[in-house]
Write a structure and sequence with these properties.
The structure holds 2 protein chains of 2 kinds.
Chain A: H1 5-10, E1 26-28, H2 35-44, H3 49-63, E2 87-89, H4 104-112, H5 119-122, E3 126-132, E4 135-139, H6 142-147, E5 151-154, H7 155-161, H8 163-169, H9 180-188, E6 193-197, E7 206-212, E8 223-228, E9 233-241, E10 248-259, E11 264-272, E12 283-294, E13 300-307, E14 312-315, E15 318-321, E16 327-336, E17 341-350, E18 356-365, E19 370-379, E20 387-396, E21 402-411, E22 417-426, H10 429-437, H11 442-453, H12 455-458, H13 463-477
Parallel strand pairs in A: 3-7, 6-8, 7-9, 8-10, 9-11, 10-12, 11-13, 12-14, 12-15, 13-16, 14-17, 15-17, 16-18, 17-19, 18-20, 19-21, 20-22
Antiparallel strand pairs in A: 1-2, 3-4, 5-6
Chain B: E1 2-11, E2 14-24, E3 29-33, H1 40-48, E4 54-62, E5 65-66, H2 72-77, E6 80-83, E7 90-94, H3 95-109, H4 117-130, E8 141-142, H5 148-162, E9 166-170, H6 178-191, E10 197-201, H7 206-210, E11 215-220, E12 223-228, H8 231-239, H9 241-248
Parallel strand pairs in B: 3-10, 3-11, 6-9, 9-10
Antiparallel strand pairs in B: 1-2, 1-4, 4-5, 7-8, 11-12
Helix pairs in contact in B: 5-6
The chains are: A alpha/beta, B alpha/beta.
Chain lengths: ~475, ~250
């Protein structure tokens, strides 16, 4: 017979697809964190003096801070001294100069992940920076981007080649003492991407970074800094995976976006960190601070995220709308299954006049997971005619999961218009039966119904990533009905 | 094609079907009529595999297979189609996407290659005309915001595309005005074929004016109490169900 609520539940328990471990020789720091570790890390990276100072200042501040506990999350205490803060594939001499010099096994890893690193996929026109544990492994398409004046490189490289540029912007959107995890990141970040789009340039291709945690007991702390100068445009994508391990692993990233007059950044994330097994053992703790500052008039930032992984997700990509007429958008799909917990949302801070923001959040909870939307829409005193539209929809699969919505609104300007719509629904047995009666298997039906639910977000993703996101959604929810 | 013997079905502790027998051969159109609560919809749900029903006795053999042994999607891929009395809305999933996924699932099961988007579009546009539907319905979310009549047409459109062997129409006439009924009936009639059978469940004679059944059955109190030709439907219309119920008692 067909699908009942209990059977929906019994479907839960799909295996993680990217959970392989790559066997490469690595240099890894012993676990522990103190000023010496930070100094050593900075030295290995050959960083300019100001970076070490920046890191140490952040570290000292971090030591005075406590973890935030306001989120709807149940987190086992994290022992920050048991984590290794640096892990890198061993290399004979310097950094690899071309793909040929990269450990074939590493390349194989990326192939398994479907990352377009090799020649044939270069034709696809995606420039990729791949971060493996702590270092950036390969950046494709550098030449072509250089011709356009675009800088796209690992942030460690940018610190050496464009130190002034990095110094000018680093920490200006997310200060080193912004929050506990941002401070930790500022102290120990190992790599990440740096992008600078000069005035008037429309980046000729999508830029993309893949992050992967491979080594055991390591944390990953990447830092991304993107600057879109006046009248420029860039679309940036990031993807993340990690192997299956029984221990929880820590990921604390910071992303800063700076958008000048008439510029636009479109930032898309497909996050597929290992979510832990069906009993909630293992998985990545994902504590991420992402913030964009629309400094210029008519500037625009669009965050699109598809969050299917991680045992715990704590993430609120935000927009500070400083420039007049600037626009912030947040499109999110967050899927939780088994024992995953997600507390995610956005902040839209309206400061400039005629600023507009849109928030579309789709939360899907299955298994025994908890999925929370937390958002803040703030309209400052001088932000005349600010407008916000928020839509938060939650979909429940099965009857043991939870969906929560915390929309905060603070308006200090009477001409502001703030709208909020929210729905909560369940995949009904009738919908499942209907699809099955047309010949579609229960799993495909769930995937189809959920994809339909997420459609308004997926259409914001670049084409090939929308396809990937849909597939990922299917995988994450496979086993969530029966 | 379909052979139901001594079928007993309960919902919870309550027996609904109490020893139903029915034989349907390929090419035939059977109509099942009966008073409210007789078990008509239960029959369509049990045949298509909806949950919530317990078969306590009896067998259902469909094309040589034990139908009750199959999951609902397996039954569908084997050619059992149910036109829903209340078609379900699936927000965000376009009609054309659902139909293509369904057709390809069925084709895959039969060992046929999947149809590509272009071929499918050609096929579907053809069928849309048959049901006098606007092509824009293809791109709207499944049944979302459709009127009652549009939903029923959409069901027959799906049948036309999926080409089932056994087509169960569960009160397809309910909620249709006379013009819509004619269109739906024309759609059904165009699907009549020597290798396809229909099981029409209806309260009213009027549907049978447009879709001529070969055999009419009266389902009352969980059993088929009387079977006959099309004239039986007319007699029921004139005399009401009490007449057969009394005869059967």
């Amino acid at each position: 017979m067909s699908t009942s609520a209990q059977e929906i539940d019994s479907y839960i328990g799909q295996k993680y697809k990217d959970g392989f471990v790559t066997d490469v020789e690595v240099d890894t720091f012993p676990p522990g964190l103190d000023e010496q570790v930070i100094a050593k890390l900075s030295a290995i990276k050959g960083e300019p003096e100001f970076m070490l100072e920046y890191r140490l200042k952040a570290f000292r501040h971090w030591q005075t801070m406590t973890e935030p506990n306001w989120a709807q999350l149940n987190i086992e205490p994290i022992d920050y001294q048991s984590i290794s803060y640096y892990s890198a594939p061993k290399k004979d001499s310097d950094k690899p100069q071309s793909l040929d010099e990269i450990d074939p096994e590493l390349l194989e890893t990326y192939k398994k992940l479907g990352i377009p690193l090799d020649e044939q996929e270069r034709l696809a026109g995606v420039a990729v920076d791949a971060v493996f544990d702590s270092v950036s492994v390969a950046t494709t398409f550098k030449g072509k981007l250089k011709d356009a004046g675009v800088i796209f490189c690992p942030i460690s490289e940018a610190l050496q080649e464009y130190p002034d540029l990095v110094k000018q912007y680093l920490g200006t959107v997310v200060p080193s003492g912004d929050n506990f995890f941002a401070a930790l990141n500022a102290a120990v970040f190992t790599d990440g991407s740096f992008v600078y789009i000069p005035k008037g340039v429309r980046c000729p291709m999508e830029l993309s970074t893949y992050f992967r945690i491979n080594a055991a007991n390591t944390g990953q702390f990447e830092r991304t800094l993107i600057i879109a100068d006046e009248d420029s445009h860039v679309s940036y994508l990031e993807g993340c995976t990690a192997p299956m391990r029984d221990e929880n692993q820590l990921h604390a990233a910071v992303v800063e976006l700076v958008v000048m007059d008439n510029a636009e950044i479109k930032y898309s994330t497909v996050q597929n960190w290992y979510p832990g097994d069906e009993n909630g053992v293992g998985g990545i703790y994902n504590f991420v601070t992402k913030r964009a500052e629309c400094r210029g008039a008519n500037s625009k930032v669009s965050w699109t995220q598809v969050e299917t992984g991680s045992a715990i997700t704590w993430k609120y990509p935000s927009c500070v709308l400083l420039g007049d007429n600037s626009v912030g958008e947040f499109y999110s799909v967050a899927v939780t299954n088994n024992y995953q917990q997600a507390d995610t949302g956005t902040k839209m801070i309206h400061i400039g006049k005629n600023t507009r923001s849109t928030i579309i959040s789709k939360g899907i909870s299955a298994g025994r997971s908890q999925n929370t939307y937390r958002g803040l829409v703030k309209v400052a005193k001088n932000a005349t005619n600010a407008r916000n539209y928020t839509q938060c929809d939650s979909l429940l699969v099965g009857d043991k999961c939870g969906a929560h919505t915390f929309p905060y609104v603070e308006v200090k300007q009477p001409s502001a218009q703030v709208e909020h719509e929210a729905t909560t629904s369940k995949i009904s047995e009738d919908q499942l039966f209907f699809c099955q009666q047309r010949g579609i298997s229960a799993e495909d039906a769930v995937s189809m119904i959920v994809n339909g639910f997420c459609k308004s977000v997926f259409k914001e993703l670049p084409m090939e990533f929308a396809v990937e996101a849909q597939a990922l959604l299917g995988i994450s929810l496979e086993g969530s009905v029966g | 094609m379909l052979s139901i013997e001594n079928l007993h079905v309960s919902v919870g502790d309550k027996p609904i079907l109490k020893g139903l027998n029915l034989q349907i051969n390929a090419g035939e159109v059977h109509a099942i009529m009966g008073p409210n609560g007789a078990g008509k919809s239960t029959l369509s749900h049990v045949l298509s595999g909806k949950s919530g029903y317990t078969v306590t006795a009896g067998t259902v053999i469909y094309q040589g297979k034990d139908l009750l042994d199959l999951e609902p999607d397996e039954r569908a891929r084997e050619g059992v189609f149910l036109a829903f009395q209340y078609p379900v809305e699936v927000p965000g999933v376009s009609n054309i996407y659902l139909m293509k996924a369904a057709l390809n699932a069925i084709r895959k099961h039969k060992g046929l290659p999947e149809v590509d988007a272009m071929d499918f579009l050609t096929l579907v546009k053809d069928k849309v005309k048959l049901l006098e539907m606007d092509e824009k319905f293809l791109y709207r979310s499944v049944n979302e915001g459709f009127s009652g009549g549009e939903k029923k047409r959409n069901e027959i459109l799906q049948a036309a595309i999926l080409e089932p062997s056994l087509c169960i129409l569960d009160e397809t006439d309910s909620g249709l005005d006379i013009d819509a009924l004619k269109v739906v009936a024309a759609g059904v009639n165009s699907l009549r074929a020597d290798d396809r059978a229909f099981l029409m469940i209806t309260h009213y004679q009027r549907m049978l004016d447009y879709i001529k059944p070969d055999i009419v059955h009266v389902l009352a109190n969980g059993k088929i109490v009387k079977s006959g030709g099309p004239e039986l439907a007319l007699e029921l219309e004139a005399k009401g169900y009490h007449w057969v119920e009394e005869q059967a008692a």
